[in-house]
Amino acid sequence: MTTATLQSASTQKTITRVLVANRGEIASRVFATCVAMGLGTVAVYSDPDADAPHVRAADAAVRLPGSTSAETYLRGEKIIAAAQAAGADAIHPGYGFLSENAEFAQAVIDAGLTWIGPPPAAIVAMGSKVNAKALMDAAGVPVLKDIDPDAVTADDLPLLIKASAGGGGRGMRIVRDLAELADAVAGARREAESAFGDATVFCEPYVERGHHIEVQVMADEHGEVWTVGERECSIQRRHQKVVEEAPAPLVERVGGDMRERLFAAARTAVESIGYRGAGTVEFLADESGKFFFLETNTRLQVEHPVTELTTGVDLVEWQLRVAQGEPLGDSAPTSSGHAIEVRLYAEDPAHDWQPQSGTVARIDLPATTRFGLLERPGVRVDSGITGGSEISTFYDPMLAKVISWAPDRTRAAGILARALADARIHGLVTNRDMLVNTLREQDFLAGHTDTGYLSEERIAELSKPLAGDGADLVAATAAALAQSVRNRDGAVAVPGAPSGWRNLASDYQRKAYVAADGTEIIARYRIGRGGEVELPDLDGVTAAAVSSDVVVLIRDGVARRYEVSLVGDQVFVDWPGASVTLTRAPRFVDPAAVQRPGSLLAPMPGSVIRVAVAEGDRVTAGQPLLWLEAMKMEHTISAPADGIVSVLAVEEGRQLSVGEVLAVITEEDE
User: Fold this and answer.
1) Is 351 domain-assigned?
2) Cα atoms found within 13 Å of the Cα of residue 313, Cβ hemisphere only
3) Separation in Å, CA 364 to CA 334, 430, 437, 568
4) Residues 152 and 172 in one domain
5) CB-count exposure of residue 3 (10 Å: 0-12, 13-18, 19+)
6) Number of other CB atoms surrounding residue 642 within 10 Å
7) What pLDDT digit, counting tens, does each position of 2-33 carry?
């Protein structure tokens, strides 16, 4: 749809240039639709995002000086000034940051700009989850009761602490022991203040192993409300969604009138507050199909692509059209097939989901389309990251959303698993293998995906590498052969052979690597008189072809092609369906790298926000010592063993790098 078409659709407003008050993937996503509609685009960026893909994707970009969210993407007056300076006449907030800030929405409108979102009054009504639940209760929508954090008793347990002003898992805590309540509330308030600028929290009963079901809505200013299908987002870690799909497996399994009841409740919710634009009404449901209102997200959701792929509707396009006064039409779009979305994060699931930071050397995700709709089974990728992008400690470490669509759920899961397994991701640890294992796991395929799906036991199983046992040695061998070709100088007697060929048999050449789990792997090979490669550690394996970046190994008549990439001391070996990351072992140990026994090191870069011990304190294994803030989340650092804090090397407010010494814990007899 062109700007001219938009202009004729409504005499109230005309949008010609859109500023996206956001960053990363969602900014790039909105720009894609704007370009397709013939609209101009403007980006804003913080100092760490100066060369980010969303900045390069826009027609113009305006710097927001600073690094943290509080200095940049949460400064509404700077964003409005940027829009005016760049000639934008509309602002799209994306999700997160100021997307559900009513004061910002009103300021945009007061500045004479078009706000691509719901009316400020609707944001206010839903902005406080406490107030929202009261309104929904009065409207007849089923809700869970609120509990004042200061009035909690043992009979109320277990309960869930939630931030009143935001979402995305920030500020959430599960409390099962009354003794944990005070610390949990304090931590939730700190995290909520950091993420949303509002420290208000509340409590509600925690429903064990429930299902997170949400209904996509779209409403215009003429009174029409569409319910655009439902989604299930039950697979979560740290109360943040990891896998989302449409339609909801629970709703499909329960059947009956559950979908109609969900749609009716969602419609009642938005009609009761005079809603306009895209939004999501979220519910918590049990296995029987009984559900309760959780919240209304007055913005576009992260998981909106699964709805787009099952309905064929570009929700961002309709946000823009509704913002100009265009009517929706009488009938909501219908759904077909099944879509699944996974969030690819730079994090380590096997180690308490530790977020990662640093440079993404390469990211190659097989995709049918980028940000677009699918007309046949395939994969869509929404990402604000490219090779060379820097994952900073200031923002969420999501690399991409990878989404599949197919006529049925089993096929959609298979397509998505294969695309992820074949991805080439170099430079950082990610949750890719866990996502693939999840998509292939039997309970997932059967649709048994409640909020307790990612138990500790299951995480350990799902985090196992796709490559399987023995793959590290094969990968190391391929890397050694490729590295030998890459490093050889001048002509060789046997063209195409790695270095090491001699007229007479020599000893095996050896190259040492360190696997991801810290194991040292020795790869050995020798070149025969005829140029053949001997591999003594791999029974029945021969090298059919060797180059500086590709090695073909044959075992039992089956050839596999291994791609080898080298970035600094890291070696990445990829083949269809799996990959291995190795580090070249140093020939000599750097004395400065030898850490003192008992040293507790920073597992991630971040800022120290609280210290609970002092030098000389006795501590027990598992006792919290200090808290770090990294990537908008709090992380607890606990004592690894019983002992005494003989050295405390940090204080509140200190910014840390990975590997810095936090403290030294020694046994009493030391």
Assistant:
1) no
2) 23
3) 33, 13, 19, 19
4) yes
5) middle
6) 14
7) 343 333 334 468 999 999 999 999 999 999 99
With respect to residue 230, please indicate whether it lies within any of the assigned structural domains.
no
Cβ atoms of residues 217 and 279 within 8 Å: yes
CA atoms within 13 A on the CB side of 561: 6
Instruction: Report yes or no on 465 lying in a domain.
Output: no
Residue type, 512: A
Q: Which long-range contacts (CB under 8 A, 24 or more apart) does 110-113 make?
A: 111/80, 111/83, 111/84, 113/80, 113/83, 113/84, 113/88, 113/89
pLDDT, one tens digit per residue, over 332-381 is 899 999 999 999 999 999 888 888 889 999 999 999 999 999 999 999 99
Same domain, 33 and 17: yes
Give CA–CA dist 144/157, Å, rounded.
Answer: 14
Residue found under tokens 């979305």: 341
Question: In 3-state terms, what secondary structure has residue 656?
Answer: strand
Smallest CA-to-CA distance from 348 within 422, 424, 438, 428 is with 428
pTM score, whole prediction: 0.84
Closest CA to 478 of 537, 419, 556: 537
Considering the domain architecture, whether residues 610 and 562 belong to the same structural domain is answered as no
Report the candidate in 296, 294, 283, 267 with the shortest Cα–Cα distance to residue 232.
283
H or E stretch at 25: helix 24-36
Q: Could you count the other beta carbons within 10 Å of the beta carbon of residue 359?
A: 14
Same domain, 15 and 109: yes
Asked if residue 579 and residue 476 are part of one domain, the reply reads: yes
